[in-house]
Amino acid sequence: MRSADVSEKPSAVAQARRSVYEMLSGFFLELPDPEMVNSIFDPDFDRRLSAVASVFETGEIREGLRFISAFISSSRNDSREEILKRIAIDRTRLFRGVSQDHSPPPPYESFYREQRLSGQTSADVYRFYCRLGVTLPEGWTESPDYLGVEIDFMRLLCQGEEEAWLNNQPEKALELLRTSGDFLRDHLMKWAPSFFEKMVELAGLDFYRGLARLTNGFLKVDLHLVEEQLEAVSHTPEKS
Questions:
Q1: In CATH, which of 1.10.3480.10, 1.20.1090.10, 3.30.559.10, 2.80.10.50 is domain 10-233?
Q2: For the chain, which end, N or C, has fewer CB atoms within 10 Å of the first or last residue's CB respectively?
Q3: Over the stretch 196-210, which tens digit does the pLDDT of each residue have?
Q4: pLDDT tens-digit series, residues 8-19
Q5: What is the pTM of this model?
Q6: Rounded distance, CA 27 to CA 81, Å?
């Protein structure tokens, strides 16, 4: 299944999309730790990246994967402790807006669309989640419009859609697919590309430069894919 190929079963498309969102949300939500560093250098990670390239093939995605591969190759002989330190420093600078000159504005939708934190946009995103019965974990300190949370919400939508197709619930699956398109169009794509451009410009490591290109490319191709899927399956529900 190429990026514009909707010939696969809808459940398979949803599964492929979910797996990419799952990988991406982990990098944006979780703080770097030894387990994360080890996972980057695990051969299975390289296989996952290769799968993304073969399924969702665009120039921007390929560029992102090249950056990540370059980081892995250039760091392979460094100590895991040193790699973790470099990743943690770069992540803090890129995601926390610690320096006006050397950091992007922090990745919150309301900041990019309203130039303030916890604005009306944040409330709109929260209502979007509630409509789907999604709540943030107890004790969670991030705003609902934080980039990692929005990406993980897309993972949940894909997961629910996949399960609906497999359970022969085409109406539910199509509603979740429409919701995915709405959220991409009305929220993520309204602001995230601006953050990713700044992230590429200011990243100190090819890892985060690649993550920015990969995520931005995937969001764009996914919106196109969702629109194609809706057109292709709306009148031909998948049979069990």
A1: 1.10.3480.10
A2: C
A3: 999 999 999 999 999
A4: 788 999 999 999
A5: 0.90
A6: 18
